[in-house]
Design brief:
The chain is mostly helical. Helix content is 65%, strand content 0%. It has helices spanning 8-18, 22-32, 40-49, 53-66, 71-80. It is globular, with a radius of gyration of 13 Å.
């Protein structure tokens, strides 16, 4: 099966993130995701666009729900999650 190209909206968001326009990227993703809740790439990009750790955590959990074997999302989420051990 061939890989599909990302939707143009996500390509634009990626470029916004690369140029430091996180607020605009987050705004666009928050408009995009309600119609594309199953798009793990959108959740991944949103995790990069939002500054709040709790929101980043939520986004990464969504990525892992959709792509359980995503090592990058798992590693980032593990870094954000405080150690439960005393």
């Amino acid at each position: 099966m061939a890989n599909q190209s990302p939707p143009p909206e996500l390509i634009e968001v990626y470029h916004l993130l690369k140029t430091g326009q996180r607020n605009e990227a987050a705004r666009r993703l928050k408009a995009y995701i309600p119609q594309h809740r199953g798009d793990a790439d959108a959740w991944w990009l949103l995790a990069h666009a939002v500054p709040q750790v709790e929101y980043q955590r939520h986004c990464l959990e969504e990525v892992l729900r959709l792509r359980p074997n995503d090592g990058r999302a798992r590693a980032w989420l593990d870094r954000l999650t405080p150690d439960a051990a005393p």
